[in-house]
Design a protein that fits this description.
about 10% strand; mainly alpha; three-stranded antiparallel sheet; two-stranded antiparallel ribbon; 2 domains
Amino acid sequence: MNNSVGSAARLLGAGVRALLVLTVICGVLYPLAVTGTAQALFPDQANGSEVKDKSGQVVGSSLIGQRYTLPKKDPDDAEEASRPDLRWFQPRPASGLGVNSINTQYALILSGATNRSADSGAVDGRCPEDAEEGTLCAQVTTAREAVVADNSTAGHPVRPQDVPADAVTSSGSGLDPDISPAYAQLQVPRVAEQNSLGIRQVEDLVADHTTGRTLGFMGEPRVNVLALNTALRALTSSN
């Protein structure tokens, strides 16, 4: 009987010591080491890849897209469609993006893709003008018409064939923070006109915020919309 009690006590003591040791190693030392290493070597990424304006205020994360829309005419109307604020560069269309009309904060909604197939609504491999509502073809056609209408200016009309794919399709996550240089360039005349800036000024802004392929061969050139709009805000406020 005494041997059984002694064995149980030893096993219990060993279990408690193991729990304490593993708690210190895995729950304290390891997290501190990983956090310290991340803060020392990758402070920007470790803190959420924050983007700050010229005053030092955090306006968002460079990893998560935002929308730039005008306030609703009727804030209580849940069905009223949001209208893009044409002063700013617009991101890819996506229902997952948080709404941000003043570029200082945003509320994240959902992340997810449409899950529509590439031939959704297509007829003989082409998208008809009267594609069935709710299909990918209808979505792309509507988005292309909006891009053409929103970005055409008196001296720079936009043709449907000039609209790049990322201007009318969402990413897999619905939260893509980047657009292609082609889509950014398409928006330059409209942004310049809306903000009373020279086209060359805005083109230089886009060039300064265009990132090439990672390590020179991975991915595609891209423009971070939040960083670009933050720089645009600084430029317009200084003029």
